[in-house]
Amino acid sequence: MPRIKSARKALRQSSRRRQENLKKMSSLRASVKTYKKGLSEKDEATKRTSLSEVYRALDKAAKTKLIKKNKARRLKSRLARVRAS
After folding, report:
1. Which of 24, 49, 58, 65: CA 20 to 30 A from 35?
2. How far is C-alpha 36 from the chain's CA centre?
3. How far apart are CA 13 and CA 82, in angstroms?
4. What pTM does this model have?
5. CA–CA separation, 76 vs 1, rounded Å?
6. 78 falls in which pLDDT band (50, 70, 90)?
7. How far apart are CA 69 and CA 21, in angstroms?
8. Given a cut of 70, is residue 85 above it in pLDDT?
9. Which helix (H) or strand (E) holds 29?
10. Who's near 28: CB < 8 A, 6+ residues apart?
11. pLDDT tens digits, one per residue of 2-54
12. What does the pLDDT read at residue 20?
């Protein structure tokens, strides 16, 4: 355990940030998973809207530096390819 006051505060901050990042990451993974699961549906409009929701989530995650920019781009590209095939 840290003894210095600023180190204690830094520990509190990092644990709080870690919890938030874990929540955001699990939510992002869940949205990608539900999109992939929904690909078996016949309704094209639903697929399109769910893809745009996943894109939005990925862009927001990249913007807040939860994931890197290129990872978001790579995932978006792969998800679009899965939808096309």
Report:
1. 65
2. 14
3. 39
4. 0.85
5. 41
6. very high
7. 16
8. no
9. helix 5-38
10. 57, 58, 61, 66, 67
11. 999 999 999 999 999 999 999 999 999 999 999 998 888 777 778 888 899 99
12. 97
Backbone Cα Rg of the chain: 17
Q: For residue 40, what is the DSSP state?
A: T
Q: Which residue has the tokens 């893809």?
A: 51
Q: What is the pLDDT of residue 46?
A: 80
CA-CA distance, 40 to 9, in Å (whole number)?
Answer: 48
3 state SS of 4: coil
Structure-token pair, residue 6: 């600023």
Assess contact for 73 and 61: CB atoms under 8 A.
no
Strands (E) across 38-81 are located at none
Residue 4 is encoded by which pair of tokens?
């210095």
